[in-house]
Amino acid sequence: MHKLIRRLLGAVPVLLAISFLIFLLMHIAPGDPVTLMLGDNATPEDVARLRGELGLDKPILVQYWDFLSRAVRGDFGRSLKFGEPVLKLVGERLPATLELAFASLFVAITIAVPVGVYSAIRHNSLVDHAGMSVALIGVSLPNFWLGIMLIYFFGGQLNWLPVAGRIEYGIEIKSITGLYLIDSLLTGNFEALVSVAKHLLMPAFTLGAALAAIVTRISRSSVLEVMRQDYVTTARAKGLSERAVIWRHIVRNALITIVTILGLQLGALLSGSVVTETVFSFPGIGDLLIQSISARDYKLTQILILMFAVTYFVVNLLVDFLYSWIDPRIKF
User: How far apart, in Å, are the Cα atoms of 277 and each of 93, 96, 99, 166, 184?
Assistant: First the structure.
């Protein structure tokens, strides 16, 4: 427990440094939120008055201290662009991004782990070379290009899938968790379930393709390394079936590396969703971040980027716990 507390305390200065860096970069970047709000025809008096009301006429360090002291009390202020509390906006958009991230992770794991394991078992076979070639292509393709191509073929040419949004217009869904797939299952709304799944399919594949390619290569390399260990030879010498050797001894011991990559990439999925959500007009955190940066919405941008940093920390902490579950010899 003391190690966990030490990890949590160690994250505090890191998050403070990140928050200050974000705050500083946002304020020195070109553009003025007051000018964007009032327009080019605003008088200097109007600009000065609004800057005073928003507290933007104070020194940067004073503004940062005001932001920090309010944040500690749970008050993150109101968005300059939307005029609503920042936490309310984040709470409305976060479920969409989480749903997209976990759907992408599911797509990646479903494709990558079986292909990586099978490629390692059939090392240097035609299947191995084909799997690694596809993985190399997946790593090389930019997300935005893949998304645009999917929209063009499956949305434009074939008209099989919707190209924007989370659910078809006119279909109502009762919000319980904010995750539309789960909410539609909980309420038995199968019309909404089908619509949500269709809207989620292309963005999830776009975001998960690069991750699947990375995990495939890592899975193959990890399994190949474990296959050369003496305890695998011993397991075979004891007469265990090949299936038991593969899944009980090889794959389980290779999971440490795979889980590490998945943990790191889950954080990357949340931050990488910015591009994918923009391409598919998916109403999540990434789309909200683009709007806040364009409007120089300081408070909203700071909270969103800080949230990504906290996500990386939490995911890495969970990965450490998974290590001890996969291999009890590892101490947290």
Answer: 11, 10, 12, 10, 22
What are the extents of the domains in the chain? Answer: 2-72, 86-326
Distance in angstroms (rounded) separating the CA atoms of residues 277 and 296: 20
pLDDT, tens digit, 9 for 90 and up, residues 137-150: 887 888 888 888 99
Which candidate, 86, 101, 126, 118, places its Cα nearest to that of 289?
A: 86
Give pTM, 2 decimals. 0.81
Are 80 and 32 in contact by the 8 Å Cβ rule? The answer is no
Per CATH, the number for 86-326 is 1.10.3720.10
Residue 274's nearest CA partner among 286, 282, 283 is: 286
Question: Which of 14-18, 79-83, 141-145, 323-327 bottoms out in mean pLDDT, i.e. has the lowest?
Answer: 323-327
How much of the chain is in helix, strand and coil states, percent to nearest 5? Answer: 75, 0, 25
Task: Supply 188's token pair.
Answer: 């038995």
